[in-house]
Specification:
With about 260 residues, the protein is mainly alpha-helical. It has helices at about 1-10, 15-35, 35-55, 60-75, 105-130, 135-145, 150-175, 185-215, 235-255; strands at about 80-85, 90-95, 100-105. It folds into two domains: about 1-130 and about 230-250, no CATH class; about 135-215, no CATH class. Helix 3 packs parallel to helix 5 and helix 6 (about 135-145) runs antiparallel to helix 7 (about 150-175).
């Protein structure tokens, strides 16, 4: 997987997960509490630049990773500006089904704020995901006394994603070699076979993984990975200070 590949090869992997987690949390806090689209876009651009430049992620790959969540975000905010309430100031109006519909200014502002807020928080989260392997994130959370059950579930879900991806790739490659996607009807049939086959193989491989863990003497608790990385408290504090300043500045301006 592209995210996992960048995380393991990132030059920031030598930094402590706690430092990167705090940098990510500062950006997510600003995006969550900010009521300004400009500030949210600034957070999105800053963390995107931080990931591409400091994390050595190719801009094209970073853009591709934004496409899927960006599609869901766009689909979620498209209907927010549309309203059928009479008397509301609208940017555009039309009649449909005996009612007057319109795109309201308030709805456009709400949709823009929601979209930019989600993009800002997504960019902050991608900074952590593309620079820190999941096993190190889970080990850090375990060290911070996160319940063992949740840590083990995160490990197993993470491994299960790779099992499903590997099974899907094998079946799809075999179908392509047999011209399974040569036509529209053939593609639909191949897709249904792919889904059923991946489900069967996923259950089988997860069972094999459980047997392998038991054969190696698993006692119900997965081991943690040591984290011998340096931690820069000054850098983390700097990001928190910038986050607090970004959140507090609009309120301070309103006082004057």
């Amino acid at each position: 997987m592209l995210i996992d590949e960048y995380a393991w090869n990132s030059p920031l992997r030598s930094r402590h997960p706690s430092e990167k987690t705090q940098i990510m949390a500062a950006g997510m806090l600003v995006g969550f509490l900010s009521g300004s689209m400009v500030l949210n876009l600034a957070v999105f651009g800053f963390y995107g630049l931080l990931t591409v430049w400091w994390g050595r992620v190719r801009l094209r790959d970073y853009g591709c990773l934004l496409l899927l969540p960006g599609f869901f975000l766009a689909a979620g905010v498209l209907l927010l500006p549309i309203s059928y309430q009479p008397g509301v100031e609208c940017w555009r109006t039309w009649n449909m089904g005996g009612a007057s519909w319109g795109i309201t200014y308030a709805g456009l502002e709400q949709a823009g704020l929601l979209l930019t807020r989600a993009l800002a928080m997504l960019a902050a989260m991608y900074f952590l995901c593309l620079t820190t392997p999941v096993v190190e994130i889970v080990s850090f959370l375990r060290a911070k006394n996160l319940p063992e059950v949740l840590c083990d579930l995160m490990y197993l879900v993470y491994r299960g994603i790779f099992l499903i991806a590997a099974a899907s790739e094998e079946v799809r490659r075999a179908q392509e070699l047999r011209l399974g996607y040569s036509g529209w009807r053939t593609s639909l049939n191949s897709m249904s076979l792919l889904i059923s086959s991946v489900l069967r193989q996923s259950f089988r491989r997860s069972g094999q993984m459980t047997v392998a863990m038991m054969a190696r003497g698993a006692d119900g608790q997965l081991p943690a990975v040591p984290l011998p990385y340096p931690f820069s408290a000054a850098r983390a504090a700097g990001f928190w200070a910038a986050a607090v300043a970004a959140i507090a500045l609009p309120h301070i301006e309103n006082l004057f």
